[in-house]
Structure formats: structure tokens, C-alpha cells
Specification:
alpha/beta, Rossmann fold, six-stranded mixed sheet
Amino acid sequence: MTTSLAGALKHRSKEAVKRLIGYDSRNWLRIRQIEAFTTFLEAANRKSRDVIEISPGWNRYWRAMCPNYRSVDFPDFDICQDRTDEQYSIVIADQVLEHVQRPLAAATNIHAMTKPGGWAMVATPFLFRVHARPHDYNRWTPAGLKQLMVEGGFAEEDVQVFGWGNKACARAHIGGPVRAYGLWRDLSNDEEYPLMVWAFAKKG
């Protein structure tokens, strides 16, 4: 047995034991959002299309899933004033919009970078601590995020918005950083306590 295979089997065994005892190594705040993005990209094999991620730099989560992937890093690529010359079938802005000074300009540029018939995938926290990377300016409810995308150029009927959160997760994040692990996470959704909001917006 090769070292790499043995290592992979050991890792899988550890993960199986964690699941068995209810230990979750995923980021509680983002579990449902990441599941939703993954399902969306898997549907109709969207993940194989040309994808660009406006990345906060520390997080290029979708690179491994999308073979035709490109990223530009915020804030060096300032989505408030910069846009690519090319358009893309999928434009991802995951954990970026809360950090921009002019979110409407950012949404407008996301729309401009999306091919006709393509999709923008946007996610941002709502009930979450201030985290300056390098600044933290904005929060939206699901309805507020939809309005932003509509004002940015997407048709209202082509924007789907979602939110996830609950009191237990909100309490866990008060006064401290996000823990990316824990026991028996409550994944039920309380619409009055959205910690994470996201949108799928299709360009007509």
C-alpha cells in the first residue's frame, strides 16, 4: 500500500468516526450555503462551464470543483470599479460583497461580467460579527440582497434568494470567531435569524 493511499484511508476513517459521534468539521455558518452552491453547480453540469470567482483571496473554495475556473482577488481586483473584458457563464462572489464600499457598483459589474443566459452566484453574511478583510461595510437580508441584484441589472423574476440561520448558531458566534468544528450542530432554519444569505441571479 502506498503512503498516499494509506493516508487517504486514514483520513476517511477519521471522518467516518467524526460523523458517527456527531462531530462536524464544516463551518457551521456556511454548511447550507455551500451545499446550495454545490447543488447548483452540479445541476445541468454547470460546473463544467467557464467560471470566474471574485475571490476574497483567502478563499477560492470552488477551484477544485470547476475545471474551467479563473479567479480574480479582491481588493486588488476592485469589483466596484473593475470588470473583466470577457464574460463568463458563471460569476461567483462568495463572501466578498460585505467588504466593498460601493455594493451597487459591484453588483452592476457582476452583471456586466455575466454572459447572457449565465448566472451570478453571490453569498454574504448577515447576522455575523464585523470582520475587516480589509474592511467590513455591508449586511443584507435576503430581500435586501435581491433588491441589490435587481438594481445591479438582473430582472427581478430571475433572482432567487435564500437565507439560513438559527438562534443556536447566532449565539455561538456572539463575542468570538467562527469555529469550523463542533458536536451536534443544529442545522434547522429560522427565517428570522439568517446568518448567511445567498442569491442565484440569471442574466436574461
